[in-house]
Amino acid sequence: MSWPENSPPQRDGDAAAGIEVTDEFERFAQRNDVFTRAFWDDGVKSKQTDKFFASYRMEAAPRRGDGFTQKDFALRNASWLISDVISDRNAAEGKREGFQSSILCDTPVAKDKVNVDDPAKMSAEVKRISKFFGANLCGVTDFDERWLYTSRVDTRDMTDAPHDLPGGLNSVIVLGHEMDKELVATYPSALAGAATGREYSHEASIVMQVAAYIRNLGYEAVPSMNDTGLVIPYAVKAGLGEYARNQMVITPEYGPRLRFSKIFTNLPLEQDTPKPQGVRAFCDICTKCADACPVKALPFGPPSTDTANVSAIKGVRKWTSDAEKCFSFWAKLSSDCAICMRVCPFNRDYEKPVNRMWLKLALSPLRKLALRLAKDHGERKKPAEWWKVE
Ligand code: SF4
Ligand code: SF4
Fold first, then answer.
1. What residue segments make up the domains of the chain, in order of their start?
2. Ligand 2 neighbour 293 (Cβ under 6 A)
3. Per-residue pLDDT tens for 277-313?
4. Would you say the CB of residue 289 lies under 6 angstroms from ligand 2?
5. Smallest Cα–Cα separation from 380: which of 355, 343, 337?
6. Looking at ligand 2, which atom is closest to the CA of residue 347?
7. What is the rounded CA–CA span in Å between residue 250 and residue 344?
8. 67's torsion region: left (phi>0), alpha (psi -120 to 50) or beta?
9. Is 13 left (phi over 0), alpha (psi -120 to 50) or beta?
10. pLDDT tens-digit map of 211-256
11. Residue with the nearest Cα to atom 8 of ligand 1?
């Protein structure tokens, strides 16, 4: 049953998270995400998109300019390796794990359940364990099925297929993974793509290990990366950050410079609450990401329910990109782009006191001053500089 037949679209707690769901809401079909469309939709699929995917296997000739040499592609592709091993291991069954299917569990659920009489303590434990395995951030929210894809994709023929999630799941553990600051500074480049690939590889191992721990306690846990559902609303509801114009979650610890993964579980956990701090008000006066986007894929005005094509969820008032334009640029580069992450004034090293002071200013009524101070922020670093050995 889909929305709005089975539930009112807007729920308690949405407003606090800055989420506005309208009566036009429909759950998102993963088959329509722009990466999946690149395999079946002639409106997206092209020689350039085929070359984009081939470049991840060192099959397409890399461009030779700075940041796009064989060394740059070699590092980027090596950084993806662990993620690739996981996503390819059940390809024969049409399951591209972590992307078009959840990650299959290698650990059975233990016969005996550990008794959890204090969900708050268990949440604190799960956060500690997630950090032990390498996650930078961890939050917990409810299993809100509005953000689940309507189905997964069988990658043998790109048709819809059931998720196969176990019943009784009630929480989502959301993990944040920091991307390398020095590499992000070199976007756009194949070298910068190593920051993305490294975190996908980290994510894959971390969600699998945290899920294995929970399964060893006798509870269900399904590890997930980009598959199964949209992670951004879960991350915002879990209090990890705020949604921004550049389509990213901006966190107080790393700004927008991180990726998110998730674990669906029935382990009794205390859930976190959203923590809006003023990013929305800052994005209202800033358009640095939209200005810098080479294909003008990001919106300039206030949040709206407008969608440029089928690769956007319907019925959610928010800043929404034109994913087709964005992906066309990625295809042209033969690598991912995150210029909109690089130039964002919140993309800073918050270990430095000066940047923590800037953050306070940006989240205060003096945000215009903070924006002025960020005028030259986020300049591109030359990839060749990164390769220089000190
Ligand atoms: S990733 Fe690049 S192309 Fe896509 S919206 Fe951001 S700046 Fe634009
Ligand atoms: S660049 Fe400016 S508008 Fe874009 S996400 Fe960052 S703060 Fe918001």
1. 15-387
2. no
3. 999 999 999 999 999 999 999 999 999 999 999 999 9
4. yes
5. 343
6. 6
7. 10
8. left
9. left
10. 999 999 999 999 999 999 999 999 999 999 999 999 999 999 999 9
11. 293
